[in-house]
Amino acid sequence: MDQHAEARPRVVLGVAGGIAAYKACELLRLLAESGHRVRVVPTAAALTFVGEATWAALSGQPVSADVWTGAHEVPHVRLGREAELVVVAPATADLLAKAAHGLADDLLTNTLLTARCPVLFAPAMHTEMWEHPATRANVAILRERGAVVLEPAVGRLTGADTGKGRLPEPAEIFAVATRLLCRGGLPQDLAGRHVVVTAGGTREPIDPVRFIGNRSSGKQGYAIARAAVARGARVTLVAANVALPDPAGADVIRVETTEQLRTATLAAAERADAVVMAAAPADFRPATFVTSKIKKVDGTAPTLELVTNPDIAAELGAAKPVGQVLVAFAAETADLERAVANGHEKLLKKRADLIVVNEVGVDKTFGAERNQAVILGADGSRDALPELSKDDLADRILDRIADRLP
């Protein structure tokens, strides 16, 4: 056996019998091309949608749906024991029911029973099936046992139907899968918790074609949402003008202005366990909105009168229920010590539990893949972190949230 192949992380990709099985081909490609050794284990029904030859060609591994093929290798035990991650995509209502109740009538369900590694389910089914009490109960059982069960996406289903039940995009399932693998499996310390995350930058319209905005890309907020999903949380993501694909498993609310961000966030935060204000709301907005495009007159520029927008984080802090953890962000252009001092003032003003202070600018933080931050706590803690990927910083922030949850 090739020693390099042995060193590659072992992933079992289970595929249940749904029309979304074709999307698992893209997920398989992403896993294989990023250096994972993937063994595809389809159900018999899945093979009616995508044939065995396709899975074998894309994975470079043998494919079987039953426990009898290669019985001398005891695959129904070996695959689960050796796997470092099991991903089931799509996971149908039938597959979720079998997994929840320990049924094992094929190779995939046997593998799920023997796996002692992180298990990720990406459900796909019609809305009525997802919302049925039996399915909801099965999902609750799996999550209670430590499995990550993503929330389905909202969109076009089979036929003309539209609703919640669509398989999340393969790239986003892949992102959650890699987070689960990154530290030998993330702790499920947010299982059963509701985490609200804001992301992006708001825009305040001047006239029908112009606005006041900022450079925030939303990448840090999306990384936090994705990491919270991987740690078992139910995530509501309030996204302001973000051109990124929806994170798998998160319920996404799209907004444009600071007032829309405020309304959506206050509503979502009422019963949330944690709120992470990673968005960059505009501090000011035009006092009046001009209903037609402002024209240049004799080359002179118009004068804009600005008014202050509400401080959403401060409003959340003033009304924060007992036990809720509030995380604010402070985007600063000052040197580190001045930035930290400003961040401490904001921490107190907003009555937050944590504040993430980072330096921003044209080429810093906004739109970048990495971030460097200092996390200040209301308990007097100060964690100066090195430059990290935004995914890794997201986990550092969630570590501190988990420590503070009752």
From TrEMBL:
<keyword id="KW-0479">Metal-binding</keyword>
<comment type="pathway">
    <text>Cofactor biosynthesis; coenzyme A biosynthesis; CoA from (R)-pantothenate: step 3/5.</text>
</comment>
<dbReference type="GO" id="GO:0004632">
    <property type="term" value="F:phosphopantothenate--cysteine ligase activity"/>
</dbReference>
<dbReference type="GO" id="GO:0004633">
    <property type="term" value="F:phosphopantothenoylcysteine decarboxylase activity"/>
</dbReference>
<dbReference type="InterPro" id="IPR005252">
    <property type="entry name" value="CoaBC"/>
</dbReference>
<comment type="similarity">
    <text>In the C-terminal section; belongs to the PPC synthetase family.</text>
</comment>
<comment type="pathway">
    <text>Cofactor biosynthesis; coenzyme A biosynthesis; CoA from (R)-pantothenate: step 2/5.</text>
</comment>
<feature type="binding site">
    <location>
        <position position="283"/>
    </location>
    <ligand>
        <name>CTP</name>
    </ligand>
</feature>
<feature type="region of interest" description="Phosphopantothenate--cysteine ligase">
    <location>
        <begin position="195"/>
        <end position="406"/>
    </location>
</feature>
<feature type="binding site">
    <location>
        <position position="346"/>
    </location>
    <ligand>
        <name>CTP</name>
    </ligand>
</feature>
<feature type="domain" description="Flavoprotein">
    <location>
        <begin position="10"/>
        <end position="174"/>
    </location>
</feature>
<keyword id="KW-0288">FMN</keyword>
<protein>
    <recommendedName>
        <fullName>Coenzyme A biosynthesis bifunctional protein CoaBC</fullName>
        <ecNumber>4.1.1.36</ecNumber>
        <ecNumber>6.3.2.5</ecNumber>
    </recommendedName>
</protein>
<keyword id="KW-0460">Magnesium</keyword>
<feature type="binding site">
    <location>
        <position position="350"/>
    </location>
    <ligand>
        <name>CTP</name>
    </ligand>
</feature>
<dbReference type="Pfam" id="PF04127">
    <property type="entry name" value="DFP"/>
</dbReference>
<comment type="function">
    <text>Catalyzes two steps in the biosynthesis of coenzyme A. In the first step cysteine is conjugated to 4'-phosphopantothenate to form 4-phosphopantothenoylcysteine, in the latter compound is decarboxylated to form 4'-phosphopantotheine.</text>
</comment>
<comment type="similarity">
    <text>In the N-terminal section; belongs to the HFCD (homo-oligomeric flavin containing Cys decarboxylase) superfamily.</text>
</comment>
<feature type="domain" description="DNA/pantothenate metabolism flavoprotein C-terminal">
    <location>
        <begin position="190"/>
        <end position="403"/>
    </location>
</feature>
<keyword id="KW-0511">Multifunctional enzyme</keyword>
<dbReference type="InterPro" id="IPR035929">
    <property type="entry name" value="CoaB-like_sf"/>
</dbReference>
<feature type="region of interest" description="Phosphopantothenoylcysteine decarboxylase">
    <location>
        <begin position="1"/>
        <end position="194"/>
    </location>
</feature>
<dbReference type="InterPro" id="IPR036551">
    <property type="entry name" value="Flavin_trans-like"/>
</dbReference>
<feature type="binding site">
    <location>
        <position position="293"/>
    </location>
    <ligand>
        <name>CTP</name>
    </ligand>
</feature>
<feature type="binding site">
    <location>
        <position position="329"/>
    </location>
    <ligand>
        <name>CTP</name>
    </ligand>
</feature>
<dbReference type="InterPro" id="IPR003382">
    <property type="entry name" value="Flavoprotein"/>
</dbReference>
<keyword id="KW-0436">Ligase</keyword>
<dbReference type="Pfam" id="PF02441">
    <property type="entry name" value="Flavoprotein"/>
</dbReference>
<keyword id="KW-0456">Lyase</keyword>
<comment type="function">
    <text>Catalyzes two sequential steps in the biosynthesis of coenzyme A. In the first step cysteine is conjugated to 4'-phosphopantothenate to form 4-phosphopantothenoylcysteine. In the second step the latter compound is decarboxylated to form 4'-phosphopantotheine.</text>
</comment>
<keyword id="KW-0285">Flavoprotein</keyword>
<keyword id="KW-0210">Decarboxylase</keyword>
<dbReference type="InterPro" id="IPR007085">
    <property type="entry name" value="DNA/pantothenate-metab_flavo_C"/>
</dbReference>
